[in-house]
Amino acid sequence: MSELTFTPVIGIEIHIRLKTDTKIFCSCSTNPESPANTNICPVCMGLPGSLPRLNHNVVEKGMLAGLALNCSVQPKSLFFRKSYFYPDLPKGHQISQCDLPVVADGYIEVHDADGNLKKIRVNHLHLEEDAASMHHSASDGRLEGAATSYVDYNRAGMPLGEIVSEPDISSAQEAVEYAMNLQRRVRYAGASDADLDKGMMRFDANVSLKCSDGRWGRKVEVKNMNSFRALERAIEFEIKRQKKILLSGGEVLQETRHWNDAKGVTSASRVKEFYRKFIVEPDLPPLIVNQEWIDRVTAMMPEMPDVRANRYVNDMGLPRDVAEVITDDKNLADYFESCVKAGANPVRAAHWVRTEVLRVLNERGQKIDAFTVKPEVLAGLVSRVDDRKLSTTQGKEVFDYMCANGAGLEDAVKALGITEGGVAGNALNDIIAAVIAANPDVLEEIKSGKDKKGKKLKFLQGLVMKETKGQAKPQEVAEAIAKALE
Question: Which part of the chain is CATH 1.10.10.410?
Fold first, then answer.
């Protein structure tokens, strides 16, 4: 009998907070920095007599997110009431779209285990309101072991887009790439900041296994994963757990499980409900999206990151890995393109952005929006290095000075005492003569033929470069020393 094999079957549900100034059904602010329970009103608190009113901007952001995922906007969609009772839901129900979402039928490409592109189908994106946030008194912030719990209703009514994939994902690695690509694309579209650290992007994974003997394990929903690494680890653990159960002849329960990141395990939370809890929302009419509205939102869509990366490779000659690093952040890609428009060589500019600009941003924990060196200034610096008016070493010194002091290019060059074009001619010959005169033993060893590996000659070259403060060109220094030794 052949050994049993198992194929993971995974679907991902991702919530993103849509980027609007006010909530989905009322005019309360979405500012996440506000004190607890200050951005609330009768609507988001579910007080009797209050009625929801759909935010036009939330619909547009949802459409933008859907278009970024290659979805189609649906001309008609509905809102429903999803009923459940928990302290974070003041109305006792959540207003959410269900059978008729605003966008549907898209896809995201990922790489399979062999490195080939694979389409993960996106079933739909639907709009809904967020629940309030719970805060527990336990030292680790968890409900378990807490003496008291508190509710902050600022989050109640925040606009969400829930993105549901088809079960096309076959591994934890594909799941992470899917989630990362989704985050990048909705950010590009301006639909959401999708910041995991701020709870603006949350995901659940539905995991089951298909056995080679025809058996299927039941679907398990895994929750409480707040990072890409947690998503990967949780899916890998769940695959191993279900495989062990099936190999022993047992059955996998259809349930919701909680991921414990500290322990690296999932634990049973509740058995999945099999009854429908949805009724059509009576206080909201159907959402009708006409073609004019669809065309206007479609025209707002920017170039997507994969398309942009291909353009950089094909039109500008950038290496694929460099293009993908730069296009990971739309604002960084915009900065790079501004450098090129200002006259910088694309390949050279890409190198400086990938190495020096990102180095400074990472050191400071900043985004490119806060970077003080303007793209046209960096373009000028790159061009001077290209034209050999500045050496690469000098260019980096000038760059660091501009970053540290907020200085312009000319002021930085002047402050560092750099002579553009480098030290050459008689000035360079004078320095070489002084270095040789100060090192007679080295000169004697070279002339005697003992310096067979050229170490002493390189020693002299190093001393000259030091005296010129890196402003001489290495090749000219080598040639000038060789001539002097003749």
Answer: 425-485
Cβ density class 146-174: b for 16+ within 10 Å, e for less: beeeebbbbbbbbbbbbbbbebbbbbbbb
Taking alpha carbons only, the member of 287, 286, 279 closest to residue 82 is: 279
Domain 425-485 coded CATH 3.40.1190.20: no
The C-alpha angle 270, 274, 276, rounded to 5 degrees, equals: 115
Nearest C-alpha neighbor of 102 from the set 159, 45, 51: 159
Among 126, 135, 145, 170, residue whose Cα is nearest residue 18: 126
Q: How far is CA 104 from each of CA 67, 121, 237, rounded to the nearest angstrom? A: 9, 10, 31
Classify each residue of 208-235 as buried b or exposed e, where b means 16 or more C-beta atoms within 10 Å of its C-beta.
Answer: bbebeeeeebebbbbbbbeebebbbbbb
pLDDT in tens, 168-197: 999 999 999 999 999 999 999 999 999 999
Other beta carbons within 10 angstroms of residue 93's beta carbon come to: 18
As given in the structure block, the two tokens for residue 228 are: 């890409």
C-alpha to C-alpha distance for 130 and 196, rounded to whole angstroms: 16
The answer to whether the Cα torsion of 225, 230, 232, 238 is positive or negative is negative
Q: What letter represents residue 128's amino acid?
A: E
Global model pTM greater than 0.85? no
Pairing of strands 80-83, 278-280: antiparallel
> Rounded mean pLDDT of the chain?
88
- How many angstroms separate the CA atoms of 75 and 295, rounded? 12
Residue length of the chain: 486
List of E strands, 253-345: 255-260, 265-271, 278-280, 287-288
Task: Work out the end-to-end distance of the chain between its first and last CA atoms, rounded to an integer number of angstroms.
Answer: 83
